[in-house]
Q: What sequence folds into this?
């Protein structure tokens, strides 16, 4: 099969590799759509903390089952599925406590196990999720990233109706977090430094937006919240951690909560610990899309969230490096980019 293999920072090669064969508890999935994530961009530059080389990137994908291991039941060849990516051991302390996303032996497709920048991918049966008939492969390729938003908001932020919630970052994770927080009754403001991202947020139904480069964020937060600060702030950027975590502290109210969702490629974030302690600001963190595939598929199938509205570009697999560079180029309006392994040589 054809796969895009990352051999080091910036060294992404189109290669012919053996087709995967399913282990007894696996299915082989023909990849029909694989979305590009911001963490793929970190990996492309060799900076993701869990990345090993050589590696087939890609962890947001959907396709159809073409082969099944002998122990797999409940699925069939030709079935349309989207795929979770975390492989928990099931034996360690966090797994026994029901928190497999924190597994001590965790493996994740696209980082320390081969992913879906390829024509086929082998997937454990417990990570397969059947697609509703009205959900397309492209929409389904966004379920994993929407699941990050869902787990963060529903399980970690837990906004109450009427609470004022600020979302820092209007990329796909931030947009999903804003839409889910709004659906739970929160009054949402979303921030970014790119006006075209804020314009998309408004088109998706989030009217309150702020460009984080304009004016004093503390003063603007107070003005937007009746002089108190936001009840809760959700950091969904990661790549600008030196700034965004500090911004969150400045915007949240006394006794408020900050939830950090963004993936940090390096350990550079600093926090004003005395300020946080004196104001009893709570900080928690959210990792992965834990148990979020089913509710996210329902959100998409019902039409309450439609990833098609923020898919901006589609590329053939062979142009994965071009797609990654486009995502990085902030002078181009790129939101969610989808790779199509079966496509021709062009893209849009």
A:
């Amino acid at each position: 099969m054809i796969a895009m293999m990352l051999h080091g920072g910036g060294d992404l090669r189109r290669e012919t590799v053996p087709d995967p064969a399913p282990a007894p508890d696996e299915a082989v999935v023909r990849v029909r759509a694989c979305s590009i994530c911001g963490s793929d961009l970190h990996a492309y530059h060799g900076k993701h903390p869990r990345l090993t080389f050589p590696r087939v990137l890609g962890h947001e994908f959907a396709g159809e089952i073409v082969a099944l291991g002998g122990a797999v039941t409940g699925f069939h060849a030709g079935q349309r599925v989207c795929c979770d990516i975390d492989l928990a051991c099931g034996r360690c302390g966090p797994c026994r406590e029901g928190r497999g996303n924190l597994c001590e032996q965790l493996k994740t497709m696209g980082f320390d196990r081969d992913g879906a920048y390829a024509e086929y991918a082998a997937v454990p049966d417990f990570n397969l999720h059947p697609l509703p008939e009205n959900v397309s492969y492209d929409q389904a390729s966004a379920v994993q990233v929407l699941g990050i938003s869902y787990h963060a908001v529903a399980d970690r932020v837990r906004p109450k109706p009427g609470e004022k919630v600020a979302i820092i970052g209007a990329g796909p994770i931030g947009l999903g977090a804003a839409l889910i927080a709004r659906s739970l009754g929160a009054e949402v403001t979303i921030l970014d430094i790119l006006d075209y991202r804020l314009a998309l947020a408004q088109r998706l139904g989030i009217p309150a937006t702020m460009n984080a480069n304009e004016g004093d964020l503390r003063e603007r937060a107070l003005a937007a919240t009746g002089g108190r600060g936001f009840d809760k702030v959700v950091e969904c950027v990661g790549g600008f951690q030196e700034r965004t975590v500090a911004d969150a502290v400045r915007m949240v109210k006394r006794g408020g909560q900050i939830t950090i969702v963004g993936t940090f490629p390096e350990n550079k974030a600093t926090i004003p610990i005395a300020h946080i302690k004196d104001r009893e600001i709570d900080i928690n963190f959210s990792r992965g899309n834990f148990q979020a595939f089913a509710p996210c598929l329902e959100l998409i199938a019902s039409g309450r969230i439609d990833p098609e509205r923020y898919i901006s570009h589609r590329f053939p697999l062979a142009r994965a490096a071009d797609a990654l560079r486009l995502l990085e180029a902030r002078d181009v309006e790129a939101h969610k980019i989808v790779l199509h392994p079966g496509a021709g040589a062009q893209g849009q």
In short: The two ends are 24 Å apart (CA to CA). The first strand starts at residue 2 and ends at 8. The mean pLDDT is 94. Residues 143-157 form the longest helix (15 residues).
